[in-house]
Amino acid sequence: MSWHATCLTLFPGMFPGPLGESLAGRALRDRIWRLEARDIRTHGLGRHRTVDDTPFGGGAGMVMRPDVVDAAIAEAMPEGDARPLIYLTPRGRLLDQPLVRELSAGPGVVLLCGRYEGVDQRVIEHRAMQEVSLGDFVLSGGEMAALTLLDACVRLLPGVMGAAESGVEESHSAGLLEYPHYTRPAEWQGRAVPPVLLSGHHAEVARWRRGEMEAATRERRPDLWTRHLVAREGAAA
Ligand code: SAM
């Protein structure tokens, strides 16, 4: 059974978008994963297929109606569908590599893409949705967030990345940022490649890379570095 992604959206034409290209596109054609974009508006009300209404309590913008969203979910997720239902929202927990790994190891995902001011809170609670954010910024809709989450998951599915592209040592795989990369020419614009990388000494290269990973994480992401130190101390205790 291929990994199954369903996106509930008002803009189904945004899918597969960039996921039809490169690694994810090839994997889609090879049926390693399956993508369905379902139009929430087919569950809209009345002649105009209305999906939203004004917010109780006043304020700007519109809110997606719970009954419409719930009907779209009911159709997309038949009884027994074990996939997690995720609402993409800036109010959610931040997407990170451990969550990506967890999702890609499962049967797939159902992603609810919000628009306007977002989705009525009651359907989020009624359907026990996981709320996931891409970062501390606001997008105009959940579709780009869904595409990004899917890209991160799909590249980890067995058979998607070749050995050459393997994600084993990349950023966040060990809770650290990755070391810097260099390729030919060995000298460019007066800048030389670090000599250790030309030494052919594998243990030295590995030591240098580890040092660079730690230095980059310490300098650029003190939050990750602190978490790494706590985990290291926990493992040593
Ligand atoms: N009023 C909402 C707020 O302030 O939290 C923002 C609504 S935004 C204009 C419309 C939709 O874009 C959201 O319902 C959500 O699905 C999506 N979205 C916006 N920013 C996002 C983020 N950082 N991560 C994930 N989804 C996001």
Automatic annotation (TrEMBL):
EC number: 2.1.1.228
Domain tRNA methyltransferase TRMD/TRM10-type: 6-226
Signal sequence bounds: none
Enzyme class: transferase
Role according to the record: Specifically methylates guanosine-37 in various tRNAs.
NCBIfam families named among the record's database cross-references: PRK00026.1 (NF000648), trmD (TIGR00088)
Protein name, per record: tRNA (guanine-N(1)-)-methyltransferase
